[in-house]
Every structure is written in C-alpha cells, then in structure tokens.
Write a structure and sequence with these properties.
alpha/beta, 380 residues, globular, six-stranded antiparallel beta sheet, 14 helices, Rossmann fold, Hypothetical Protein Yjia, Chain: A,domain 2, 2 domains
Length: 380
C-alpha cells in the first residue's frame, strides 16, 4: 500500500507551519519534511523532519549544484521513499518561493510509484499579506525569498502560480475583514479551487492525483480560465474573439493592459503568426508572452492523436469553420476594472474588415514587435 503525500506551498512560513501542524495533529503517525533553502546558493540545505511530538531528524545536506531541483532529486525523494514504510502520511513543506508543480511532478515519478502517492497540493496563504502580495512588482531578490542563485522571478508571479496550481487553498491569520477580502480575491484568481481555514483542512489521504491533469488546469491550451465576475471592488473581465490581432497595435496597448489589471492570462494569436498559439501571463504589472505550441488547426489531422484528450476537447469548444481553434481568450482581474474599456482597447487591436480582406500574404508583412521577445526565447 502506497503512502499518501501532501505538498504545502506558500510564501509565508507561519501560514505553512500552521497547516503542517494541523495535519500532524489530525493524522497520528504523519511525518513532515522541510528543506530550509536560505543557504542553497552556497550549495548547503538544512533538512528538518518532524512529527507531532517534535523534531525527529535535523541534517545538513550538501548538494553538487545548489538548486531546488537538486534538492528534490538528491534528497527529498529518497527521504520520502525511506520514510514511507513507517509513516501514515508524508507532508512536504516547501520553501517560501518554491512553486509546487515541479515538486509534484518529481514525486509522481516511476521510481516512487507503488511507494508514494501524491494526494493533495495545498497552498497556505497569509490572509493579511496575500491581497497585497499579489499586487507587488518586487523581485524575489528584493524580498529575501530567493530560491536559487540568479533567481529573477517576481514575488507576485510565484504567488500566482502557487495559488493556481493548488488543489486546495488554506487561509491563515488576520481578522474577519482580512479573510473576507482574501476569499474575494481568490474567488477571482482560482474560482474552482476550494478555500479552507487552517483549523479544518481537506481530506489528504485519498486517491492519487494525476499531475498531467493538474498541469492541464494551468497550461495555456487547456487552462480553466476564470469567467466574467464582479465582487465588491474586484472585477474579472473575459475577452473572447476570433479575428487575428495586429501585432503592432497590441504591442502598443500592453502597458495599459497590464497596469490596469492585477492578474491576466490566456491564449491568443497574431496575424503574423497564424500557426502559433501564444500564451499571455501577467501579474503585478509584469507580462510574459510565450510560444505555447501550434494550434491544432495548423497541424495535419493525423497529428491530433498525438495531443491529449483535454487539448482536443478545448480545441473543439473553440472550433470555428474558418479559424479552427485559433481564438483570442484573455482574462483580466483587478480592482474596479471597466469591462467596456478593456473590450474596446483589445477590439481596437483586431484586424479591421479591410485588413481581413487583404489576406494572410499582406498580414505576413506587418511590423511585429513581438519578434524580439518570441524569437529570442525560441533560440535561448
């Protein structure tokens, strides 16, 4: 019988610790493992193993290369397998800036099958800090929460990924007003993910999760994007169109789009790149545009069998006789967003009737400011 494993992610240690303590209390025989990565840039990590009675083991781990991946591969996974025989539940408390996806996929590996089963990915959130953190444009290096040498990620970027990948969210601290605001924000950022208090956590000893399905929940081609919503001062606006975007006009609007919203994401296509699905990912004023692979309409039908059922289902929902699965599907969340303004701004970036009639040969000659971003990433 495999041993259940639950991951606890989160930027703030007190929130994570409260969730871990509750699980240890509720599950006799549970063991928690935490790697302190403050010295990881010096290739040194401290591993702490504890149960409800206190610390069981404290060890310094030396790594050949100081990084989170090395820590998981060289120490966490072997430690989990070693303790599986005697623990009723294994709890992995991740370091502040660690995103749970990579760790979840490492645990859900062939080496551990039959010994470990990943059952939950929880993100513990500080109810006082979370609504502010998601708006912060600071890099991790500026906040003291770096997870590896040369880490250039932004705090809000990491927080968004911790929230959106999780199977459950756990609120800690603050007063009633803090909790209500946090729940309102989470209703927009992750509307289908259950939210718990740290005094009543979800069941974590059930069936194994499929990390492939977890990835599909957030990957651009298959992501479960939020819908139009308004709660108090927070608004989520969905923009869904079929026409291609003019790259130069869209590029000129990027700054306004990302500064008027706190979080935005989705998939889109440019007239100059009809075969490429592009992923839009922005948080706290920082935007990333990346190649997310080909649209199914750009592939021979024989190749469709090579993609996942979820990918084919998502394409079918968006399918149009002319554009195929090519679609503009972007979602923006922020305080007091004006849906009309967001729609008008983006609609102005679509090709006009005259430009549509000019055809793809004319589109190929448009100035494309995204070339410097996308082509650089493709050759990196």
């Amino acid at each position: 019988m495999s041993t259940p494993v639950v991951l606890i992610a989160g930027l703030h240690a007190p929130a994570r610790t409260a969730a871990v303590d509750r699980l240890l209390h509720d599950h006799p025989g549970a063991v928690a493992i935490h790697h302190d990565l403050r010295e990881v840039v010096r290739e040194r990590v401290e591993r702490v193993v504890r149960d409800r009675s206190g610390i069981l083991d404290l060890a310094e781990v030396r790594l050949a290369h100081g990084c989170v991946t090395c820590t998981v591969r060289e120490d966490l996974l072997p430690e989990l397998i070693r303790r599986a025989a005697t623990a009723s539940l294994l709890i992995v408390e991740l370091w502040d800036a660690v995103e749970p996806r990579a760790v979840a996929e490492a645990v859900d590996c062939e080496e551990a099958h039959g010994v470990l089963r990943l059952t939950s990915v929880l993100t513990a959130l500080d109810a006082v800090h979370m609504p502010i953190d998601i708006t912060r444009g600071d890099r991790l290096a500026e906040t003291g929460q770096v997870a590896a040498a040369g880490d250039q990620r932004f705090l809000a970027e990491v927080l968004a990924r911790q929230i959106e990948y999780a199977t459950g969210l756990v609120l800690h601290g603050g007063d009633t007003e803090d909790e209500e605001l946090s729940r309102a924000v989470l209703d927009h950022l992750a509307p289908v993910t259950p939210v718990f208090g740290d005094d009543a956590l979800p069941e974590v000893t059930g069936a194994a999760l499929c990390t492939g399905m977890l990835a599909e929940r957030i990957d651009p081609a298959t992501a479960r994007l939020p819908v139009d919503a308004r709660t108090d001062e927070i608004t989520t606006v969905v923009w869904h169109r079929l026409r291609p975007l003019h790259p130069a006009r869209l590029f000129e609007t990027v700054d306004e789009l990302v500064t008027t919203s706190v979080r935005s994401r989705g998939r889109f296509w440019l007239a100059t790149r009809p075969e490429q699905m592009l992923a839009w990912d922005a948080v706290a004023g920082v935007v990333s545009v990346e190649d997310a692979g080909p649209w199914l309409a750009a592939l021979p039908q024989a190749a469709w069998e090579m993609v996942s059922p979820a990918r084919r289902a998502a394409a079918a929902l968006d399918w149009d006789e002319v554009t195929g699965d090519r679609v503009q599907h972007l979602v923006f969340t922020g305080p007091d967003l004006d849906p009309g303004h967001v729609h008008a701004l983006l609609d102005s970036c679509l090709l006009t009737e005259e430009e549509m009639l000019a055809g793809s040969d004319a589109w190929a000659g448009y100035d494309d400011p995204f070339t410097g971003v996308l082509d650089l990433k493709e050759t990196a």
